[in-house]
Amino acid sequence: MAQVATDDPLQRDDAALGALAVYQGAPGSDAFSAIHYLGAGRIIAGKRSSQAASRFLLSEDYGATWAVVGCPGSTGAHTYFFGQNGALLFSGTGDTGSACLMKSMDAGCTWTVALTALQLRTLVGSADAKAVFSPVYLGANCWIANVKSFDTTKKVILSADNGATWFVPSAQPGQGASAWARRMILTSDNVLLWPSCLTDKMYRSTDQGASWSPVTVPGASLFQPLCDAGNGVYFCGDVRTAPNTPIKLYRSLDQGLTWAEVVAVNLQRPTVTYWRDVLKVGDSLLASACCMEGTSNERYMQLFLSVDDGTTWVSLGNPYYGPYGGMQAIYQMCATELDVVFAGCQPDSTILRWPIPVGVDGGVPGDQDGDDYLDFADFAVLVGAWAGPLVWDPPPGCTTAQFIRADLDDDLDVDLADFAVFQREFTGSPASGGWAGRGLRFPP
Ligand SMILES: [Ca+2]
Ligand SMILES: [Ca+2]
Question: Is residue 1 part of a domain?
Fold first, then answer.
C-alpha cells in the first residue's frame, strides 16, 4: 500500500496537468454530474440541478462548442450517467425524487422520457423512487439500470428489447430496502459491479444480473467510483461523513472477489469527502478525491495519478484554478481516442480538458521532440503532425502524443494556426509574446 502524505508538497507531481476549461458556467452554479464520450468527437454532459429544458450539454467538436439539450417532460433534479449502444443512449435523473429514465435514439441530439416517475415507481413498487443511476448496456439488446429507493428491495431493472420495455428481475443486489448504489458497471470480464453505498459490501454478478453475491471490501464505506482497468483489475472508493477523515481507494486484482486499500487521502475538511471517479486512460489511472457538494467554498479537491496500475499514486493537487477559484469535485471523467480527458466539475459548472499522459503538453512551448530546445528539428516534427484544420486524427506515422504536442493552440487539430504559434515562439521577442529572451535555450 502506498500511503501518500498529500500535505507534503515534495510528494506532489510537478508535471503540469495542463487543464483547460472548455466550458465555464457562473460562480457557484453547481456541477456536471456526468460526462460521457460518444465517439467521433462527440461529448455529452449531464447537468446537476437541471430542468427539463436543460438536462444536457452536447459538444460535437471535441468540446470547442457546446449546445444545451433538454428532455421534454422529464422530472427530477440531477442528471446521472450515460449508457450507450451505438446511437441509443439512456440516462436517469433524481436523488431528490421524481426520478425518470430518459432515452436518446440519435446519440444525444434529442431526448424523450422512457419511464416516467410514475411508471418507475409502479415498476419497482416504491412510493418514492429517488434516482435512476447507471443504465448499462449488456449486449444482445439487453440493458440493466439501477434505481435508488428506500422502501423496496427491487434495486435493478432489466430490458431485453433494447430499452423498449423494462421489467424487474427476480435476482436483486443489496442487503435490503435501505441499500442503494450510485454507479454500476459491466467490466470487460463480464462482471457487473454494484457497490452498496455507505457499506463495505460490493455486489457482483457474473451472469448479467441473473444472480448476485456480495463480497466484503475491508474497512470500506463505499460510494460512486468504479473502474475497470483491464485484466481483472478494478477500483472502488470511499465516502466519509465524519470531519477530517481519510478516504480510501481500493483495488481488486481478481475481478472483484477480493479488495485491498491502495491509497488514502485526508482532505482535512469539516464536511463530507469522497472519491468520485476513477478513469483508466492509456497507461494512466486518474482518481478524483472530492469535497462536499452543495456548497461552493470547499475548493480543496485533489486529483491523483497512477502509472503503475494503481499500485502507487501521486497527488496532482487541485486540477484547475478557474476565474472563481479551485475545483471542489470532479464528478466524472471520460477520454477520447487520442487520450484527451474531459471532466465534469463542481462548483462552477466547469468542464475541463487535458491530454494524457500527464505532462505531454507541458515544457517549452513548441518543443516537439522534448529536448527542451526549440530549433529546426522541432519544425520537422511539427510538419509530420500536420493534418489540416478540423482534422482530429493524427496523420500516418504521427503518434497521439506527438499530435497533442503539435496542437499548439489547443483546439485539437494541427493546422496553419499551430504553425503560426510555432513561428511566434521560434522568432518572437518578449514584446511580441514569444519565448526568446524568456528562458529559451538554443542548442550549444
Ligand atoms: Ca526540441
Ligand atoms: Ca491546433
Answer: no
179: left (phi over 0), alpha (psi -120 to 50) or beta: beta
Q: What is the tens place of the pLDDT at every residue in 38-58?
A: 999 999 999 999 999 999 999
Residue 121 and residue 31 share a domain: yes
Please state whether the predicted TM-score (pTM) of the whole model is above 0.85: yes
Q: Which residue has the cell 478513469?
A: 279
Closest ligand to Cα 425: 1
Asked if the structure places residue 3 within a domain, the reply is no
Task: Check the CA dihedral 418-350-334-54 and report its sign.
Answer: negative
Ligand closest to 435 (CA) is 1
CA 75 vs CA 44, 46, 117, 130, 223: distances in Å: 19, 14, 7, 11, 24
Q: pLDDT tens across 278-317, in order?
A: 999 999 999 999 998 777 889 999 999 999 999 999 999 9
**Chosen domain end from 292, 327, 355:** 355
Angle between helices 376-385 and 416-427 (to 10 degrees): 170
User: How far, in Å, from the CA of 5 to the mean position of ligand 1?
Assistant: 35
Task: Provide the number of structural domains found in the chain.
Answer: 2
Which residues on adjacent β-strands are paired with residue 321? 326
- Domain endpoint, select from 355, 383, 404: 355
405 and 270 in a common domain: no
Instruction: List C-alpha distances in Å: 441 to 179, 363, 364, 419.
Output: 60, 12, 9, 20
Ligand 1 centroid–CA 400 distance in Å is 18
Domain that holds residue 236: 9-355
DSSP at 107: T
Q: Are 129 and 118 in contact (CB under 8 A)?
A: no
For the residues 186-212, what does the mean pLDDT come to?
Answer: 98
CA distance 356 to 405: 11
Q: Which ligand has the nearest atom to the CA of 385?
A: 2
**E strand or H helix at 289:** strand 284-290
What separation in Å is there between the alpha carbon of 413 and the centre of ligand 2?
Answer: 4
